[in-house]
């Protein structure tokens, strides 16, 4: 799966989210399943992957240092879990949860890595996304800005050997959705626009978020996947 194919999968996951809602895992089957299948093909014989959208279609629970954790994508070698991947795709109301997303990522990473299992993270977000009030009415547009990316820039400079809370490798992928060229009043308006959008296409965000160091890969799924597979071959 190259970067354009990855963006197509992300777009399909987004459209499934619009169709089925935030509580459904149908969007995750598309996204997690495509990543899992791609990694399975890259890793080859001797490895297997457990995830939504592949195999028995279920997440696997990994024994963490403190608590057991159901992991989005688990890589196994000779039927033994050797690595996990957490995947997060944010589609609305980013700002109220942005710190929680990051803190939860660090916590779940530390829990797994302290059990001597490498743990990778994929974080996907549009560079512009809607913020809704509790009743579902539209309040404002939010943007994923250079301020939001600062913590990922800091994370990218961490030494993964000494910083156990830092993922073995993180993919930060910021996307650009087609602009909505009219005012919207609520979630239904937002959904209706994209459901009837001609030539719907997801692209990489053109915004420059800075120069990331080795612990974080920015907007390059292929590079992230290659580095992950290379790391697995030494386990």
Topology:
Blueprint: H1 3-20, H2 26-43, E1 47-51, E2 60-62, E3 69-71, E4 73-77, E5 80-89, H3 98-113, E6 119-126, E7 128-132, E8 138-143, H4 146-156, E9 169-176, H5 187-195, E10 203-204, E11 216-218, H6 221-232
Parallel strand pairs: 5-6, 6-9, 9-11
Antiparallel strand pairs: 1-4, 2-3, 4-5, 7-8, 9-10
Could you characterize what this model shows?
- This protein is an alpha/beta fold and 235 residues long.
- It has one domain.
- Helices cover 36% and strands 25% of the residues.
- It contains six helices and eleven strands.
- Strands 1, 4, 5, 6, 9, 10 and 11 form a seven-stranded mixed beta sheet that branches.
- Strand 7 and strand 8 form a beta hairpin.
- Helix 1 (3-20) packs antiparallel against helix 2 (26-43).
- The protein is globular and about 55 Å long.
- The two termini are 23 Å apart.
Return residue spans where pLDDT drops below 50 for at least 5 consecutive residues: none
* Mean pLDDT over the full residue set: 94
| Number of β-strand runs | 11
Shape: globular
Tally of helical segments: 6
End-to-end gap? 23 Å
Summed up, the domain count is 1
Structural class, from helix and strand content? alpha/beta
What value does the Rg take, in angstroms?
A: 18 Å
What is the helix fraction of residues, given as a range? 25-40%
Order of helices and strands, N to C? HHEEEEEHEEEHEHEEH
Task: Give a short account of the largest sheet.
Answer: 7 strands, mixed
Relative strand content: 15-25%
């Amino acid at each position: 799966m190259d970067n354009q194919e990855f963006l197509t999968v992300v777009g399909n996951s987004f459209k499934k989210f619009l169709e089925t809602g935030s509580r459904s895992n149908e969007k995750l089957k598309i996204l997690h399943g495509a990543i899992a299948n791609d990694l399975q093909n890259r890793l080859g014989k001797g490895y297997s992957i457990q995830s939504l959208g592949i195999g028995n279609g279920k997440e696997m629970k990994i024994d963490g240092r403190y608590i057991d954790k159901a992991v989005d994508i688990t890589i196994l070698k000779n039927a033994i879990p050797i690595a996990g991947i957490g995947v997060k795709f944010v589609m609305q109301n980013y700002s109220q949860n942005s710190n929680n997303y990051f803190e939860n990522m660090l916590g779940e990473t530390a829990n797994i890595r302290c059990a001597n299992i490498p743990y990778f993270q994929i974080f996907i977000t549009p560079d512009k996304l809607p913020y809704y009030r509790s009743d579902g009415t539209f309040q404002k547009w939010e943007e994923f800005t250079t301020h939001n990316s600062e913590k990922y820039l800091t994370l990218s400079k961490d030494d993964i050997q000494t910083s156990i809370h830092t993922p073995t490798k993180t993919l930060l992928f910021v996307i650009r959705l087609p602009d909505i060229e009219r005012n919207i009043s609520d979630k239904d308006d937002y959904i209706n626009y994209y459901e009837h959008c001609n030539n719907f296409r997801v692209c990489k965000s053109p915004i420059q978020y800075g120069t990331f160091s080795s612990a974080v890969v920015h907007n390059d799924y292929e590079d992230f996947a290659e580095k992950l597979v290379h790391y697995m071959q030494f386990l």
